[in-house]
Amino acid sequence: MTDRIVAAFDFDGTITTSDSFRAFVLHAAGPARFVLAALRCLPSIAGVPLRLADRGRAKARFLFAALGPARFETLDAAADRFVRERLPALLRDDMLARIREHQALGHEVVLVSASPSLYLRKWAASAGIDTVLASELEWRDGAYTGRLAGRNCWGPEKSARLRAWWGERAPRTLYAYGDSRGDREMAALADHPWIRGTVPMPPMAHAAGGAM
Predict the structure, then answer these.
(1) Rounded distance between C-alpha atoms, residue 120 and residue 117, angstroms
(2) What is the set of domains in the chain, with CATH numbers?
(3) pLDDT by residue for the chain (212 residues), tens digit each?
(4) Are 58 and 91 a contacting pair, CB within 8 Å?
(5) Most buried of 9, 58, 91, 147 (most Cβ within 10 A)?
């Protein structure tokens, strides 16, 4: 055990007011292509809550249906525009303030999300967050393949990613912030779990040696 204090934040519905992945696809593809992609992928999208379709595969296929085998440079530029033009309107001021509180106390803040790292890393850098554990898109010869590289970072995968990230340096205190079923395993790891709408915000602890 170390003196580390870690605050792990889910993104969609926790830091944001709505799903950022759908907002990204809509912003990058435009309304017409977004709707056509949704219709094309409707069976798999509808099958996710019924556990008839894999959540990660459905998400990756929807992005491919909307944008096709886009080049990395194209999607990277779309991610830049999304973070600059659309994402700010989705952010919750109270959660941004909570992130800043953790940072001011010297806690390590980590973003843990099922959404693609493609745009999450850009936003996280702007918020002073160094670590992003998220779903990764698969690329081949510089183009998007329509698949994820590795597992969808949802549910049990969130706690697995956190454990792999800290390795032998498990935190003395772990805060976990979420809003849905996909955050339960991460919350179960935490000393101070918070799921939106279920419990009050936990009190803040000081890192060893005081605030930084």
Answers:
(1) 5
(2) 5-195 (3.40.50.1000)
(3) 578 999 999 999 999 999 999 999 999 999 999 999 999 888 887 766 757 668 888 999 999 999 999 999 999 999 999 999 999 999 999 999 999 999 999 999 999 999 999 999 999 999 999 999 999 999 999 999 999 999 999 999 999 999 999 999 999 999 999 998 899 999 999 999 999 878 888 888 765 544 33
(4) no
(5) 9
